[in-house]
Structure prediction request, 120 residues.
Amino acid sequence: MVMIMARPSVQHTVHVTNKLRDRILIVHCQSKDDYLKAHAVPVGESFRWSFELNAFGGTLFWCKLAVQDKRLVFTAFDHYGHSAVYWYVRDDGVYGKDKLINDVFFKAAWRRVWPRQLTS
Prediction:
């Protein structure tokens, strides 16, 4: 006889905090299974969501950030890789902090998006 033991579910929460000087941040996150609509996050505020790991592993969330003419895409949670659960969005990019380790690390820089030129 084979017994399969269920793992207890663990709730994970990811926080994306707007630490920009004076601009509203647009945060749009999703996974393969969950689509989180876009959120306008004022300065000093956070967007956060909670979830349980996929039963078969491989939980992955990525986020698209936008502010004025800049864009940034990053992996916000990766079950198999190093995942921070606290993200701080600053004027030069996004920084992460693990809930167990106090070290803050640089994750990604902003990318400037130029308006498309109209051709006649």
Q: What stands out?
A: The chain has a mean pLDDT of 86.
